[in-house]
Amino acid sequence: MMMMMATGQEEKIETPPTFDYSAETAGETMSRRLFMGGMIGVFGAVMAAVAAGPLLSYLWPPKSTAIKIDKLVLGKVAEFPAGTSKNFKFGSIPALFIHSPDGSMHAFNATCSHLGCTVQYQQAKNNIYCACHGGTYDPATGNVVAGPPPEGLHKLLASVEAGEIVIRPEKAGAKA
Q: H helices then E strands: how many in the chain?
């Protein structure tokens, strides 16, 4: 660009050169726009993978690692006087044995049917209690007495064999 000065001389003013930073014309040079677009794409792909993980594990859960057993010897009858109880593991599930004050013996899956908390026997109140939300079950039948549990506890079979208390699973799908 040329400019006339007051002295009559022309002064040449140079304009800065323009550069084309696009990847097609610059070889190895990359524009900010192209770089940011690529980074946003990578970030989006990572976020999609993070979100897909829990969804896929929900749709295809891992194979159960539950330990299933057919029989458990809990102990000698003399170790459990009438009116006592014991929480124990029956395979991989929490379970509860109750030797009632009347002498009868009962065993249940100790998982509350409301939110899966472990229940306890309350000897003073003669009930099975879930501390999470106040659910109460009958210690003889496992049926819901009060609170939010939608159904009773799953029964296990308790019997005495050769002076020992033996716990077995009840028939499939049996409820108290």
A: 2, 12
